[in-house]
Amino acid sequence: MPSEELAHLRLMKLIRAFEERVDRLFVEARIHGTTHLCVGQEAIPVGACAAVRPSDLAGGSHRSHGLALAKGLRADRLMAELLGRRDGYCLGKGGTQHVASLEHGFLGTNGITGGGIPIATGAALTAKLRRTGQVVLSFFGDGATNQGTFHESLNMAAIWRLPIVYVCENNLYAMSTPIREATAVERLSVRAAAYGMPGETHDGNDVLEVRAAVARAAERARSGGGPTLLEFTTYRHHGHSKSDEREYRSREEEKCWLDLDPILRSERRLAGAGELPPEALKAMNADVAAEIEAAVAFAEASPPLEPSLAAEGVYAE
């Protein structure tokens, strides 16, 4: 039986190829607005979503294309959404910042720092009240842990023992602010103690470690044990957004983290175990590249949203 890590590797590669293509499309002015890439952070959404059931829910941040794909959204329809096309998951209205798919249990990306945390917490309350047996994963960055929504949500979830796992993707920078200048604690996971819940810090560049940590926390939540705060250390290879030239960090620091690339780590582990011979790796890369090309072709063939439909599905004006 092939290793499950092979499937994780392919999905991480798909996410990276998707993001790299989005980067190109943005430069070519075929994607408008802004975009935040998760290149380098792929192991966290892949490992986390692999640890829970398909019926469980997940909510993201502004940097969550990877989470959407890990939750089961199709690359072609997600690409159509980013291009503002009618065949996108939100008819092209949500774009990169507000795409969601309730059929996949994906509560959406969010353009407000920490804005998705109370949404996920509310979904966890709903799951508990309706006794659905679902667990909610709430993804956010290190910068969001200094927002009031983070503290209010964790406090509420702890009091009500909600079935939620808070997943902090600590990439060391809130936009351009180093984490060491924004918080006095060395590990963000220690903040969990203030709310009477477990807090753990793990290597976010190891997909198997991520999966194992989330699996334990999800089982605890599902059995009535309440929430957990999981901090995963990682690094974004690109800037915060397309306008960020990364002048606040050194190329030496970047090189150190590039050597810890989550995709390279899985490739080396699988190759060492004899599960990823060179020809299999080449075939996987070609398969992923073909899927991305097909996604772009699908998106560009999709019609733009007609202006007359702009108010369709809008619940407040």
Q: Give the tally of β-strands.
A: 8
Structural class: alpha/beta
Name the poorly predicted regions.
none
* Proportion in β-strands: 5-15%
Order of H and E elements: HHEHHEHEHEEEHEHEHHH
Helix content: 40-55%
For this structure, what is the CATH class? Alpha Beta
Tell me the name of the CATH homologous superfamily: Thiamin diphosphate (ThDP)-binding fold, Pyr/PP domains
Trace the largest sheet across and list its strands: 2-1-3-4-8-7
How many structural domains can be distinguished in the coordinates?
Answer: 1
Structural overview:
The protein is α/β, with parallel strands linked by helices and 317 residues long. It has a single domain, classed as Rossmann fold (3-Layer(aba) Sandwich). The protein has 11 helices and 8 strands. The strands form 2 sheets. The protein has a 6-stranded parallel β-sheet with strand order 2-1-3-4-8-7, sandwiched between helices. A two-stranded antiparallel sheet has the order 5-6. A hairpin with a 2-residue loop joins strand 5 and strand 6. Helix 1 crosses helix 11. It is globular, with a radius of gyration of 19 Å. The N and C termini lie far apart (54 Å).
